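Students often ask why we bother encoding 3D structure as a string. The short answer is that it lets us treat folding as translation between two languages. Here is a chain of 400 residues written in the first language.
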Amino acid sequence: MSQHAKLNHQNLFTGILSALLACTGGAVLIVSSAENAGFTTVELISWLFAVYFFGGLLNIALTLKYKIPFGGAHSITAAAFLSMSATQFSVQELAGASILTGIIFVVFGLSGLSDKLLAVLPKPLMDAMLAGLIFSHIVKIVPAMKDAPFVGFMAMLGFFLFPRFFKGCPPVLGVVCMGLLALWIGYDLPAMESLPFAMPHVVQPEFSLNGMLSLTLPMTMLVLSNDLFVALAALRKNGYEPSASKTITITGVATAAVGFLGGHTVNIGGMMSMLCSSEEAGKKESRTYAAIVSGVLVSIFGLFAWKVIAFINILPLSFIWMLTGFSLMGVFIQSLQSAFSESTYRYSTAFTFAIAVANISFLGISAPVWCLIIGIVTMKWLGEGTRSNPSLRTEKKLKG
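And here it is in the second language, the structure alphabet:
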């Protein structure tokens, strides 16, 4: 950070936008995942606190150490994956899977094994799996708008108008603002439940083969391909030179640590780092301030986890469905485009997507594992993906 650089309105506004990306749909996804899995309120508070408080601190620390504007908190793509997959696992098994994910990151960062794993699990198949898993969240927007047409109309209005009138504003912020305005006008919301303040608690992890196959491996690939690699590529594009090995290694240590508190991952984020390092964040020498603002707000959000849960609990289910669906719209479109834009992957991505949409477990093995197995077998049998591999191309670009 330059000695002459000062915090300005561009840094501040961009940092706030970056934090909002993490603190809107991401929080709703975690609450939804925990409720579907039957976690207690204390376990949910610990989960939210771990990924937001320590996720913010991680990105502040990376920013200050390397003078590079890292933005992030936790992996929203991994949270979307868990919203459909965590229901079959206990909080102890989730903790074990998260710790293993962090350990794998450390191994990747120190050895460069990500090349080989990405060759075995190509990005188009991973994106087809993710698009299929979150498809159910997207389609719930339709019945939600039918149940609450006024809120749905206002939310849709915000989705389309906010980015048009406020440069750099994420559409989901418009959904939040206009949707809450509609609720304030047309609904009598119940009083917020007075949840007691709860300190995060250490979770005794459980490790199992099913947890490793169904949670650890998919989460590892999703965070690498949709968060870490995207963030590193965005930073390079905007003129910075982050060390991929050091960043992934530090992320792994932090992810393993928050696993003991029930958190799924903490990491740098693709869109958040892209925002904080872009021209919208001001002059290059002052963009680190945007990342610091983002990290501070994310950490504060984590400190008030129990209040966040109490507020989300009073919102109508239809609005929760809308907010979740709209917040995942960008991830869904990007995953769908990535999965089906490569001409060398056809039937393998189609089968992977279809099995993920069905989300049916068989022989005690979850749908994400089956869809990847069938996708890989189809790919190998039909000789798909042999002419080009976008994941390897991305990795080569990062190594520059």
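Translate back mentally: The mean pLDDT is 80. Keep this in mind for the problem set.
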